[in-house]
Write a structure and sequence with these properties.
heterodimer; A: seven-stranded mixed sheet; four-stranded antiparallel sheet; B: mainly beta
Chain lengths: ~110, ~110
């Protein structure tokens, strides 16, 4: 079955450490997204990518970085500059960017501080 | 800036009744509006999309309306079941410079009691 796989499901970060969250999709979608969700809140856009080797900042990109070297993969790095990284991180994809296509989500990675 | 408000954080109803969830938006004229369902610890799942020129859309027991004058969308679940208990998120898709950047509401948690 096609879908989005996020790993790991749970991740712990030590102070001053960078951590990378994995997101892989086999839906052949061009557009991919990273969101952050805090308890009781909606999703806030971190980064998005329309196509391979291209990505744009979302509303809360500070302290995060991404790459899009392959169509299937869109990893997110939470850097030490992100002072409040504890959250639920969701990766999504859609056929295209900016069209009336629904987003397909993975089941998230929960990041906590040690 | 654009803002989305979903009615009360929690909605409790009796099985068999119709659940009505509200999504209001300001400072914005979205081209599309989407509704998603999110279960605890999981990623959102797409339910319905409605365009600005559509007044109503249905899918099985679900119905969505989109009133661009009131700047409001209503999401109805008829003959509700305990299995419908989840958090429901609305999301607005932008056009022009906001194309592809979905803005999500904080969600409404629905509990259907048997």
């Amino acid at each position: 079955d096609g879908g989005i796989t996020q790993s790991p499901k749970y991740l712990f970060r030590k102070e001053g450490q960078n951590v990378t969250l994995s997101c892989e999709q086999n839906l052949n979608h061009d557009a991919m997204y990273w969101y952050r969700q805090d308890p009781g809140q909606g999703l806030r856009l971190i980064y998005y990518s329309q196509i391979v080797n291209d990505f744009q900042k979302g509303d809360i990109a500070e302290g995060y970085s991404v790459s899009r070297e392959k169509k299937e993969s869109f990893p997110l790095t939470v850097t030490s500059a992100q002072k409040n990284p504890t959250a639920f991180y969701l990766c999504a994809s859609s056929i295209e960017l900016g069209y009336n296509q629904p987003q397909h989500f993975g089941d998230g990675t929960r990041l906590s501080i040690l | 800036s654009q803002k989305i408000e979903q009615n009360s954080e929690a909605l409790n109803i009796q099985e068999g009744k119709t659940a009505t969830l509200t999504c209001n938006y300001t400072n914005y004229s979205p081209a599309y509006l989407q509704w998603y369902r999110q279960d605890p610890g999981r990623g959102p799942v797409f339910l319905l999309l409605i365009r600005e020129n559509e007044k109503e859309k249905r899918k099985e027991r679900l119905k969505v309306t989109f009133d661009t004058t009131l700047k409001q969308s209503l999401f109805h679940i008829t003959a509700s079941q305990p299995a419908d208990s989840a958090t429901y998120l609305c999301a607005l898709d932008g056009i022009g410079t906001n194309a592809g950047k979905s803005t999500f509401g904080d969600g409404t948690t629905l509990t259907v009691k048997p």
